[in-house]
Amino acid sequence: HFFRSGKYDLTFKSPSDPSSYISPGQLKSFIKDYPVVSIQDPFDHDDWGFTASAGIQVVGDDLTVTNPKRIVKATNEKSCNCLLLKVNQIGFVTKSLQACKLAQACGWGIVVSHHSGETEDTFSAGLVVGLCAGQIKTDSPSKYNQLLRNEDELGSKAKFASRNFRNPLAK
């Protein structure tokens, strides 16, 4: 949400000064100069020009909207390398699973996400485990507690996602 007039506002001030906006190239330099490991929707939701080869996890949310057609486009354009999986965006669990499988087949990481204003329901915690996503975005302690219960229940069958969970095809 820091894309303004074709440039990026990293000042996070309101109102901001357009003379302080940085170009896409400067944003890439920022990512290299600071310990950024993951960034979500760094560009405008219709700006397909960012390359996921920045060496970090580039999570597509508004860009991909858990939609397989947009995931294919983002893969072809190399705009992302991770999917923010939100069941509410596509509207169906089965379509969400299709989007997840497609993203995983492309070598993307998966972040299972909550819906803003969500309840204490633990469905997304189960989904992150069932899909071996390795990442969850939530603001509800009940999800974290459920993940701990899942680990206890799995016991020795529980598997560490590995150091490469953000990039499943990395060696």
TrEMBL record:
Enolase C-terminal TIM barrel domain residues: 2-168
Organism listed in the record: Cebus imitator (Panamanian white-faced capuchin)
MF GO annotations: magnesium ion binding; phosphopyruvate hydratase activity
Family in the record: Belongs to the enolase family.
Major location (coarse): cytoplasm
One GO cellular component, as annotated: phosphopyruvate hydratase complex
Gene3D superfamilies assigned: Enolase-like C-terminal domain
EC id: 4.2.1.11
The protein's name in its UniProt record: phosphopyruvate hydratase
Reaction(s) the record says it catalyses: (2R)-2-phosphoglycerate = phosphoenolpyruvate + H2O
Compartment(s) where it occurs, according to its Swiss-Prot or TrEMBL record: Cytoplasm
Cofactor: Mg(2+)
Domain of life of the native organism: Eukaryota
Xref: PANTHER family: ALPHA-ENOLASE (PTHR11902:SF12), ENOLASE (PTHR11902)
Keywords: Glycolysis, Lyase, Magnesium, Metal-binding
GO biological process, one term: glycolytic process
Known pathway: Carbohydrate degradation; glycolysis; pyruvate from D-glyceraldehyde 3-phosphate: step 4/5
